[in-house]
Design goal:
This protein is of the alpha+beta class. It has 20 helices and 26 strands. It folds into 3 domains: 190 residues, Heat Shock Protein 90, CATH 3.30.565; 128 residues, 2-Layer Sandwich (Ribosomal Protein S5, domain 2); 210 residues, formyl-coa transferase, domain 3 (2-Layer Sandwich), CATH 3.30.1540. Strands 1, 2, 3, 4, 5, 6, 7, 8 and 9 form a 9-stranded mixed β-sheet that branches. A 5-stranded mixed β-sheet has the order 10-11-16-13-14, sandwiched between helices. A 5-stranded antiparallel β-sheet has the order 19-20-21-22-26.
Length: 601
Amino acid sequence: MPVRQLPEQLVNRIAAGEVVERPASVVKELVENAIDAGCCRIDVFTDGGGRRRIGVTDDGSGMSCGDLALAVDRHATSKLDDEDLLQIRTLGFRGEALPSIGAVAKLDITTRHASEPHAWSLSVEGGAKSPIMPAALSQGTRVEVSDLFYATPARLKFLKTDRTEAEAIREVVRRLAMARPDIAFTLAGEERAPVTWAAALPGAAGRLTRLGDILGGEFRAAAIEVRAEREGVAIEGFAAAPSLTRANALGQYLFVNGRPVRDKLILGAVRAAYSDYLPRDRHPVVALFVTLEPQEVDANVHPAKTEVRFRNAGLVRALIVHALKEGLAREGRRTAANTDGSALSAFRPSFAPRPTHWDWHNSPAYPASPAPAFTGAAALAETGQAAFDVGAPTADVRFEAQAAADLLDRPLGAARTQIHETYIVAQTRDGLIVVDQHAAHERIVYEKLKASLARNGVQRQMLLIPEIVELDEATVEKLLARAEELASFGLAIESFGPGAVAVRETPSLLGKANAAALLRDLAEHMAEWDEALPLERRLMHVAATMACHGSVRAGRRLKPEEMNALLREMEDTPNSGQCNHGRPTYVELKLSDIEKLFGRR
């Protein structure tokens, strides 16, 4: 078959496939054009999930008649001052959006520039342009796209349902609205009720207002401000406390120079920063904004501009990890009980009202003989009260000297009692706190291990008689392969024949640890490692496992002085609001909330 030149319309349709993947792609390109035009308000309307109609209206600078004629030609753009692709300061710069849309749909543009006496309109249908005509429009630009992919029917087969496509459009507008809180957005369509996000004030407060409007009050209540800057790279935004997580990474919103992106480098940095706070199957909710000079980032690596490449990727990653860790450490004692009403709602009674027409005396279950008189002991034996009959406290420190009034002013208060040999109840000036003793001590041991490793290595204790642990041969091989890393944490092991390991030294912080259980857990974690996992993260996995085995176990009765000592250590330990598996270490109830439960206010 001879080589031939493809017709221009076919070339445009092929190129359109790189830019216009689905209706959400059209909305993204049109809204980005409106943002680049310096608008203050953007209205988006869709019908049929965007395949029947998409309308985007803005109050930006608009286009003159001459600019409008060029705007629908390929590679024509007003967003590059010169030919330097390293100085990209706008969201769109390729000049492909409008001609690509016009190649596969019916495109109508009405626009008015401030220097023009009236507006102008232009239509493009299947790549064919109409003459420019005078039109009526007070300001800005209105773009309408109808019958998307009518010129390429094969693409219609790959579109999802109208509801799914509409949700994809909503996600695109949400991300762009997060990036520009100074612009008011309205999203409407037959698939949903209109949603309006009003323009917010500049600064962090306005950004949090916009994020709260989009992500909900739950994020606003749990949001921690993060900020860092180094060598011309600035990181700003908000990260949710570890108490607010998701089952996937879709709650992580990342922006580079105002451009929404899905960058593996940034996602990896977020995961690393939260690794000490969350279980392995949970993901944080963050909105991070990276700002740097245009020549330090390449936004031209993907046709849809959803990926970027950094000149100094290591600096960006380190700065993100530092900013997140600093913010999380600053708010280290924030837990679910501090950020939402879950703890309070758990105490609310949920008794259903008894029907008014039902008469107990006429019920077949009514006893023939009179019921015995009410007594306190009998009442506690009733079925309705059985759940509250938990026995006497396992420890009581109401009369201990250490529970003096000055301890009530400490953040975690004075220990009052231990219940179920697992939870410590402490009193503060304005409420009470319930502490999970195992989770709290686990975090304390973990932070001590990390600090000791960073300072001069973990202190060891030599066993008088080495402990022999029998394991299967595959597990023994995994452990011996990592013996050097384990030794850095004070756990010295060596081979003791096939299927056995001899433990000669253990970290002194762990006290008398169960070596067999510890080694089995370490082997399970190592099975999930690969060489791509940094050494630092592997060491932190080891530290977390050791901390779990070396902490106070649930079911251990504590003395009053031990309870107060644990509370004081929590106050001095970073990130003590969660254990290193992501569980909260304590919950707090304010006195005002308790009074509401009992109708006192």
